[in-house]
Each structure stands twice: as structure tokens, then as C-alpha cells.
Amino acid sequence: MTSIARDLLAVSPVVPVVVLDDAADAVPLAEALLTGGVGIMEITLRTPDALAALAAVAKAVPEMRVGAGTVVTPEQVDAAREAGATFLVSPGATGTLVDAALASGLPFLPGAGTVSEMLALLERGLDTLKFFPAEASGGRSYLSSVAGPLPGLAFCPTGGISAGTAADWLALPNVGCVGGSWLTPGDAIRGQDWGRIERLAREATALRG
Q1: What are phi and psi of 130, to 5 degrees?
Q2: Which helix (H) or strand (E) holds 69?
Q3: How does pLDDT run across 86-134, given as a tens digit for each residue?
Q4: From start to end of 91-138, where are the E strands?
Q5: What residues are paired with 179 via a beta bridge?
Q6: Rg (CA), the chain
Q7: CB-neighbour burial class of residue 89 (10 A; exposed 0-12, middle 13-18, buried 19+)
Q8: CB of 82 within 8 A of CB of 99?
Q9: Is 130 labeled as catalytic in the residue annotation?
Q10: Dist CA 206 CA 150 (whole Å)
Q11: 127, 92 in Cβ contact below 8 A?
């Protein structure tokens, strides 16, 4: 489980955190990201169309590693797996949620914002985590200080990270990628400006030189 989750961090320097109000936008969005070199996307379960959007990408764009984000209940774990999610991301982690995620067999990036939360997840065999909310939880200096006592952990920080700060986060030794919504801005999706999203994806891909 952990090694598979660790593999997710190498797909792209930035994992797009996507909020979709219309499932019809999911496939062209995924295709634009792929064309720009980003082969992974996290569709957050924050909207009524999220599961339908996830299922559409899983079916029509098999080259895209599409995951479910903002997973907060065991029921959502099951629904995401049935929709075709290839990984799960949560903002935090309870024992019940971790049990369900591990039982699903899908790679899982559970959210943690403190050393105690990180240790609790490590006890469950989870060594690849989402640091969330990244900026509000102490930012780069906090996560850098964690590398000493917890050298076996790797992170995908998410929350408050921008195109302007992503490179600084990626420079940390315990960061494999970052999560961000700036690759898929809401106005570009609503305007179906797939060219803009492709350009943003290319810029993000260049962060890993």
C-alpha cells in the first residue's frame, strides 16, 4: 500500500485539485491536463457531479490517474472505488476512515497536520501523506523540521500553495509533489478554456527540472 501511494508522488510535481460543478467538463479537462504533461488529477467530492465526473474520466481517459479527494467517510471510499478512482485523498484521518481506505485496496494519501497525526498514520503503515492545510499548519519551515525525527515520511503538501511558492515546497527533501487548484481555475473550466489549462499544466510540469 505505502509503496504504491509513494508512486503517486512521482507522477507530476503538481497534483491538480479539481472542483467540478458539471460532469461534462471532466473529460476535456483531463485531456487538457494530459496534453500539458500532467497525468494525475484529484477530483474533490465537494459537488453533486463529482462522482459522475470521476467515472467519466476513468472510462474515457484511461491514461489519466484520476483520484477522489475530500474523502471523509467510509461510504465515500466505496463510492469512489465503484466510480473508478485509482487513489484516495482525505483532508484528515480517523480510525474508521483509515480502515475503509485500506480495505479498498486503493493507494491512499491521508491528511495530517501535526506530528502526532503523522505518527498515528505511520503506526497504520501509511508513510506517504498529504500535509494539510499546508500553509496554515506551519508552512515549509514546519514540514522541513519534521524530516529530522520522521525521515521515512514523504508528503504531498496541499492548501495555500500557489504557482509562485510551489518550487520552494518541492525543494524540501520530504516533499514529492504538491497539490494545488491553480492548474484548474474555476473561470477557465466554466469558460471551457482548455488551452489555458494546458498551458498551466506545462508550466507545472516544468517545476520538476
Answers
A1: -95, 120
A2: strand 65-69
A3: 999 999 999 999 999 999 999 999 999 999 999 999 999 999 999 999 9
A4: 108-109, 111-112, 128-131
A5: 15, 158
A6: 16
A7: buried
A8: no
A9: yes
A10: 29
A11: no
**Cell numbers 518550487 label which residue?**
167
Neighbours of 37 (CB within 10 A): 16
| Catalytic site residue from 31, 42, 135, 198 | 42
Local structure of 149: helix, strand or coil: coil
Quote the CA–CA distance of 189 and 191 in Å, as a whole number. Answer: 5
Distance CA 160, CA 166 (A): 10
How many helical (H) and strand (E) elements, i.e. helices and strands, does the chain have? 10, 9
Active site residue 42: yes
Q: Write the CB contacts of 138 (distance below 8 Å, at least 6 apart in sequence).
A: none
Domains of the chain and any CATH numbers: 2-203 (3.20.20.70)
Catalytic residue among 130, 135, 198, 203: 130
pTM for the model? 0.97
In this predicted structure, the answer to whether residue 47 has a pLDDT above a threshold of 60 is yes
Q: Do the Cβ atoms of 44 and 50 come closer than 8 Å?
A: yes
| Cell output for 153 | 515520511
